[in-house]
Amino acid sequence: MICKIHDKIKETAGQLFSRYGIRSVSMDDIARELSISKKTIYQNFKDKDQIVMMGVEQHIEKEKKEFGEVMRDAENAIDEILRFSKCLRKNIAEVNPTVLFDLRKFHPQAWEKWLSFKNDFIKRTVLCTIERGKKEGLFREEIKADILATYRIETIEMTFDPKIFSTEKYEFIELQMELLEHFVRGMLTRKGYDVYEELNNTINNE
Amino acid sequence: MICKIHDKIKETAGQLFSRYGIRSVSMDDIARELSISKKTIYQNFKDKDQIVMMGVEQHIEKEKKEFGEVMRDAENAIDEILRFSKCLRKNIAEVNPTVLFDLRKFHPQAWEKWLSFKNDFIKRTVLCTIERGKKEGLFREEIKADILATYRIETIEMTFDPKIFSTEKYEFIELQMELLEHFVRGMLTRKGYDVYEELNNTINNE
């Protein structure tokens, strides 16, 4: 029973955070949403920081699973990136961008956890995709995969900085899609160009 | 005569800074190089900071002139970027990368000057080039020029951060060239792809 309510709190908190950001959601809000007392929450979690940390861990597991499925199912490296792009679009639509700002500012440990996931796991994934694309003749042979993988990670970072891309001026999702498309296109061989255009058209007409 | 020695000091200091970085070059070094007394330097410049600021101003003027010539002479937007790339390669080979690190750390006013040049002037130039390329049918019509110009400026910034690209691991020039080539390629139409390959081959065989 404790286990059930524990998971329920984590789940509901995650939903509220995704919708409104972390800072704006208090322990009272979570209790109210679940129609339980704040005491019950504190019987299950030390503090909000712990709920946030567990939420981040859960999110990381979910992303790892999704990434694994994409890599397994994709026909080729370009298809892989287009499928990642679809996941990314879904994640962005579901999560209020404030979440990451709040994480960095108010939950440094959970932020570090996310950062190291992003830097290690996503970088490894990007490296694999680039190598796959090279083998398939879709990405240019001479590409320095390591430089481009680091570049890609830092680009994602960049889009979260409102001093660089003002949140008033740019739609977050538009920004991500523009930069991801540019990233893939920058790697293409002529054959890759054709495959990209074809797959991209198929997806856009779906 | 004062004017001549003033320019001579500025010129020599600029050469020493380019070669060894700013921090490593003292007023004594500049005096020694010119076989003049330190007093003569201080009769012409308030302090090292002022020499650095004037050096930055001179460098900016030189770059503006070079950029103007490139835009005037280039056959099309891709040629423009390849010519910029050549200038960049030349500048990198001539200037010790420490200069920019020292500038940021020890000469904040001169750094601000360079930063605002980079952010305003280079951004405007990139915007012009993108618009030109679109009109010529070489860059994709749907590109958000403003996003990509900001992205490009921030990419340049990124390459100066040793926490991102370790100076031990990456050759600075290799890094710049890889990312510039990727940047152009990410914008190409099919027609642009052909023009790029042709122009790039011509340059590489020169």
From TrEMBL, chains A, B:
<dbReference type="GO" id="GO:0003677">
    <property type="term" value="F:DNA binding"/>
</dbReference>
<feature type="domain" description="HTH tetR-type">
    <location>
        <begin position="3"/>
        <end position="63"/>
    </location>
</feature>
<dbReference type="Pfam" id="PF00440">
    <property type="entry name" value="TetR_N"/>
</dbReference>
<dbReference type="InterPro" id="IPR009057">
    <property type="entry name" value="Homeodomain-like_sf"/>
</dbReference>
<keyword id="KW-0238">DNA-binding</keyword>
<dbReference type="InterPro" id="IPR050624">
    <property type="entry name" value="HTH-type_Tx_Regulator"/>
</dbReference>
<protein>
    <submittedName>
        <fullName>Transcriptional regulator, TetR family</fullName>
    </submittedName>
</protein>
<dbReference type="InterPro" id="IPR001647">
    <property type="entry name" value="HTH_TetR"/>
</dbReference>
<feature type="DNA-binding region" description="H-T-H motif">
    <location>
        <begin position="26"/>
        <end position="45"/>
    </location>
</feature>
